[in-house]
Design goal:
Layout: E1 7-13, E2 18-23, E3 31-38, E4 44-54, E5 64-67, E6 72-76, E7 80-84, E8 91-96, E9 105-111, E10 116-121, E11 125-129, E12 135-140, E13 146-152, E14 155-160, E15 170-174
Antiparallel strand pairs: 1-2, 2-3, 3-4, 5-6, 6-7, 7-8, 9-10, 10-11, 11-12, 13-14, 14-15
Length: about 180
């Protein structure tokens, strides 16, 4: 069992048959890091500190997605999207949400069908990017406490809710072709 961390995202690493967990830290000045966990969830395979970041109250590590084309990790950090090296934690690529920064990136997923990135903001927007940070499309989505996303066969799965008792949490799907939840 793993304790004493703040999980802000979870993704599967196809190449290594492991899972990655984003850890924002439980206290100010905690290291912001990524845990690689064995598939049976019994062993920490590696711990990667993200570019010497600490929980400073500004960097907001949220979503995490494994990129099986580039064998890297992508993270949503509030104002930015970053591609992270799995071996050293260095930032390979970074781009700003630009005019969407105030909505704060929360969820992130790689679309395997076209090797692009989907980002769900905490409020108001779902944004589709290429890997260079160019916006392909935006969708107005504003569900109270929208959180994480996963793309599967062209459909975006969205978790919604911050009710830690579990009563008001739910999952919705969004079809970009129909622009409909």
């Amino acid at each position: 069992m793993f304790t004493n961390f703040t999980s802000t995202g979870f993704t599967y690493d196809l190449k290594n048959d492991t899972f990655w967990i984003a850890d924002h830290g439980t206290e100010l000045n905690d290291k912001i890091q990524l845990f690689q966990i064995s598939k049976d969830l019994k062993k920490i395979v590696s711990v990667v500190q993200v570019a010497d970041y600490v929980n400073d109250g500004i960097i907001n590590l949220q979503g995490i997605a494994y990129d099986d084309v580039d064998d890297t990790i992508w993270v949503a950090t509030g104002n930015n999207i970053q591609e992270i090296s799995k071996t050293g934690g260095g930032i390979i690529k970074e781009f700003s949400l630009k005019q969407y920064e105030k909505y704060q990136a929360n969820g992130i997923s790689i679309d395997k069908s076209d090797n692009t990135i989907w980002v769900l903001c905490y409020s108001n927007y779902l944004i589709h990017y290429d890997k260079n940070g160019n916006i392909i499309s935006t969708y107005k989505i504003n569900l109270l406490d929208q959180d994480m996303i996963y793309v599967y066969k062209g459909i975006i799965y969205i978790t919604v809710g911050a009710d830690y008792m579990g009563d008001d949490n739910y999952l919705v799907t969004f079809d970009p072709k129909k622009s409909k939840i």
